[in-house]
Amino acid sequence: MIRTYAISAAVFAITVVAGVLHFAGAGAVVTFLVCGAALGGVAWLIGIATESVGARFGPAVTGALQSTLGNLPELFIVLFALSAGEVVVAQFSILGSLFANALLVLGLTIAAGSLRRPDGTMTFGARLPNDTATLLLLAVFLIAILGLSDQVGDRASQHQVAISIVGALCLLAVYGAWLVAYLRSDGTGEAALAHPPQAVLPFGFAIGLLAVSGVAAALVSDWFVHALDPAVEAIGISKAFTGLVIVAIAGNAVENVVAVQLAAKGQNELAISVVKNSVSQIACFLFPVLVLASLLFDDRLTFVVQPVYLGALALTAIALWQITGDGRAVLFEGLALISLYVVLATLVWFE
């Protein structure tokens, strides 16, 4: 616990440094990098605090709570990006979060979980993986029809914002219906935990840490986006790569660290719950909410994406169903998911 307190203090120190660099008008690249490190650190704190709060509940509630609070950095990043007119960064940050969780984080989690088992097989309940694949395929269907309409230039392509609004409301309704049923599953059937997680921090301290970390996530996200344009130009990388890879990995530090640690401890149900809940939430909650929130800004966010990313989303949904749908996964399947992410990141680098 002393180690956790020390790391928490270090994270807040980095956050203060990021704020000083921002308000002092320091170099954009330095500010961008420090803010990125601070984002990752704040995400880690949110993960630790949520794990402590969630130790009182089952894997469904804990996974949903951890994913919701773990996605705070992405939410703030996209909102500030939209307010700054950075629609490309906003959209690629959402897509990047989807790909990072569904491919990179899940792959690392499967690798850690399978290596721990003598037979090399990580086992978990099949319901959540199948539900996640269904929700992701629903989102892909919406994105596909809008993308195809945009490509052919039909009459509907002139109403992308209106169609995206209707689609966002439908996704939210379906996600809400699924979430209620899923949360009720705690303590029954395959949702039960054989070895419940132990609280890392006292309950009261964890609640306070969540509140402070949420505020810190909002502040650092604003500074991060403010430094984004000049930093990207100075470094020489594209906004697409920044959003899809850099922002996604920094913003998903919770899932990166927590899920892999849980799998390494043998808590497979909770590890899968953290990752899968995040994928479902980004596709069917965060993305729709941000589409609706963008109505408050001059630049609107829609579900229209380029064909190559539409194809990547569809293949990701199929890969999720194929690899985790039977409640079992082995090392090479985890490495396959990681490889898919590396190939996609390489493609975006050359875009």
Give an overview in words.
This protein has a two-stranded antiparallel sheet. The protein has helices at residues 2-23, 28-54, 59-70, 72-83, 87-116, 127-152, 160-183, 203-235, 239-251, 253-264, 268-293, 307-324, 331-349; strands at 121-123, 328-330. It is mainly alpha-helical. It has 13 helices and two strands. The protein has a single domain (2-349), classed as Up-down Bundle (A middle domain of Talin 1). Helix 1 packs across helix 8, helix 5 runs parallel beside helix 10 and helix 5 (87-116) runs parallel beside helix 12 (307-324).
Task: Give the structure's gist in a few sentences.
The chain has 351 residues and is an all-alpha fold. The protein is built from 13 helices and two strands, in the order αααααβαααααααβα.
Q: Topology of this structure?
A:
Layout: H1 2-23, H2 28-54, H3 59-70, H4 72-83, H5 87-116, E1 121-123, H6 127-152, H7 160-183, H8 203-235, H9 239-251, H10 253-264, H11 268-293, H12 307-324, E2 328-330, H13 331-349
Antiparallel strand pairs: 1-2
Helix pairs in contact: 1-2, 1-8, 2-3, 2-8, 2-9, 2-10, 3-11, 4-5, 4-8, 5-9, 5-10, 5-11, 5-12, 5-13, 6-7, 6-11, 6-12, 7-11, 10-11
